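Hi there,

I know you've been waiting on this one. I reran it after we fixed the sequence typo, so this is the corrected version. Both the input and the resulting structure follow.
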Amino acid sequence: MKVTRDLSQVTIGILGGGQLARMTVEAASRLNFKVAILEAEAESPAGQIAAFEIVGHWSELEALEKLVQACEVITLENEFVDAEVLQRLEASGRPVYPSALTLALVQDKARQKQTLAGAGLPVPAFAAVSSPEEVLSFGANYGWPLVLKARRNGYDGRGNYTLRLPTEIAEGFERLGWPERTLLVEQYVPFVRELAVMVVRGKEGATGVYPVVETIQKHHICHSVTAPAELAPEIAAEATRIARQAIEAIAGVGVFGVELFLTEANEVLINELAPRPHNSGHYTIEACRTSQYENHLRAVLGLPLGATDLIAPAAMVNLLGVKAGRAVPHGLEEALAVPGANVHLYAKALSRPGRKMGHITALAPGGSPADALALAQKAASLIEF
């Protein structure tokens, strides 16, 4: 006789309480799952609406023990948690997804590239470097410019430094915090478009892939996403194949973001992986049969994965902070009056220039991604933090 789990009693623990965790909590509530958040500060975006909010740092044993006692399975919303923390949680007997091994393969960008290249997947030429001389040697082989990166804890361009000439190497090392931070260097990719794919993978290896999307970055921050990316079918199929195989290569469980470059020669290269729900997948809340957040929960709980197909062409525009200070969304009423615009605010207490404060999504049934983008941009232009 089949034994049915009482899923109404399930609590999922999340390391981190930002907007990605908040939207995961929202998805959990639809399925009557509870969520426990562990975050360093009280009243985090996710902590405000979670069933349990544990205040403490990921390195604090007491806080980790509280999380273990509160939940049946643990996941995370960012890759800044040390893999050793996940090992400690796994040793407690709680399943953790992504696993400590998967996180270790992803959070060190040099190790990530080594893993992907070892699986035969296309990545820019790269090398871990421990001295300016090694960068100079790399440049002699691959030419200039180059991209110098911190191997850990970089996001939205923080942790990257473009080297256009050999004379800039010393400044790049200083800006990125060497020798306290370890570095890698990559061949500069003169891409023509930036693409992204969300992949969900279950505990038994079942995989779902969301549509290939195009992302527009400004100052290294994602400003908009259009779904699907308008690509030749063979390029979209290649991006899908690469994304799926990348997550298989790291034995991922849960939702993962795969950032890609498309070159002028129509070559698809992996830029970076994100072991969690991703900014480029926000559109899935309204635009796909199953959002990335719900599918992440399904995957880590061992439930059947939901359909990932697109309901209609869609777009997402990030709402970024303009001024520093208390977060007040001016123009919300006007944005809500735009027909078809979906407003998501993240409940962050403080705004600062460039900080992600929310997003707008829009669908264009019978239209194009460009039509959806115009609608989302119209609503986004009315809100200022």
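Quick highlight: The longest strand covers residues 193-201.

Best,
R. S.
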